[in-house]
Amino acid sequence: MEKENKKILLVEDDQNFGAILKDYLMLNDFDVVLAKNGMEGFEKFKKDTYDLCILDVMMPYKDGYTLAKEIREKNKEVPIVFLTAKTMKEDVLKGYKVGADDYLNKPFDSEVLLMKIKAIMQRKSSETKAENVQFEFQIGKFHLNSKLRFLNFPGNEPIKLSPKENELLKMLALYVEDLMPRELALTKIWRDDNYFTSRSMDVYIAKLRKYLKEDPNVEILNIHGEGFRLVVKK
Amino acid sequence: MEKENKKILLVEDDQNFGAILKDYLMLNDFDVVLAKNGMEGFEKFKKDTYDLCILDVMMPYKDGYTLAKEIREKNKEVPIVFLTAKTMKEDVLKGYKVGADDYLNKPFDSEVLLMKIKAIMQRKSSETKAENVQFEFQIGKFHLNSKLRFLNFPGNEPIKLSPKENELLKMLALYVEDLMPRELALTKIWRDDNYFTSRSMDVYIAKLRKYLKEDPNVEILNIHGEGFRLVVKK
DNA sequence: TAATGTATTAACCAAACATTAACATAGAGG
DNA sequence: CCTCTATGTTAATGTTTGGTTAATACATTA
Q1: pTM (predicted TM-score)
Q2: Does the UniProt entry include the keyword Phosphoprotein (chains A, B) (predicted)?
């Protein structure tokens, strides 16, 4: 049976950048519809169903935020990602250039965007559906299989994860590059949020950090008083 | 259903400038009604509902301040922006001319006005709706992510912000180019307005200034006895 | 019941944070 | 120009939060 790809609406006024990003996303197995301004974007949104919208914030005639509001009025569920700072675009472009000759093998900067996209979609689908569709995660050079509770690092013996380790890492991966609130992990994994469970969680964060040391590009950052953020550099 | 744009009443006696500014605002996705003097402005104000009024201060028959008073009597909520010195007009004109052949890509001076308008609108909408999902701000060369609490300057390591630093900078950004009253930050962020919280705030202003030193075009100005103003020069 | 894997709790230290104090400087008004 | 108040700045303090290791408790299975 033919599995259909996830569909992305990409709204970007910079034609050159838009085309490149579209190519890149399509190479990564997404169906992409590109609109070159807010109005066209909204028209296309109304005519089809999408799994994700990527909106440039700075656009003439109708900016990304305004478009997002319109989209929200039509559909309260669809995930929306903003392309904000120039830096991000530049990263993607740079990544594209770097990877152009060998993009299938080398990891490059725009993978951050890709990772975020995947994580967001997965979060959405795990919110609506109780049964988690996906249980495999790429975290830098690591590969996490959260069903078998294995964390693989190429060359090394697979690391067996305990149930708590596994759930916590999975939760972090689900929020890759984004804030994973303390309270979320505590209520979802520990089913209780108090001083002791919180300390317990810290212990597990330390354990995960130890495992993840193998790849210096992978880090669990703390956001004081808020939670943690799994980041994959480069 | 088509969502309607924000509506702006623009009162400007200089026909040429008024038309250009109107065009510029419309290109930025606002609905604009142009009146060419204070009396016409008030008539048009009474006949419709606006999200913002932009009033030229220097006008024959009825100056901007007088008009503003009348408008305020009718409506205590609507944001009012004054066009004061020539400099700003010249900036916009200059910007428009410079950008005329290439305005989609190059940033130009009138973006300050646009920034102000957007900040004002945003403030209004965040007053009414608590679910303001807006947490990314461009401040000169800096990029503030107030959800992850970091301040990025291209080339440097991201600066982690403490909760108070973060909220204060966000508040200043919300009032870009405009007065951010002391009392507002104190009541909203410190939830108390006394001598000590006020001194605490000054300490945080000093901290932010230190961070913002990287970009000489970004400054936090003090307005004696009133508050602070975040400005982005050039 | 020993062995093993797992989770919690304790204890201690380090980092992050907000406040307060102290002193210097700038602005407003007489 | 003088005085009073507001602001700029740095440092000291106390508190909360997080990082880490080890000890303990618990659970599962051999």
Answers
A1: 0.73
A2: yes
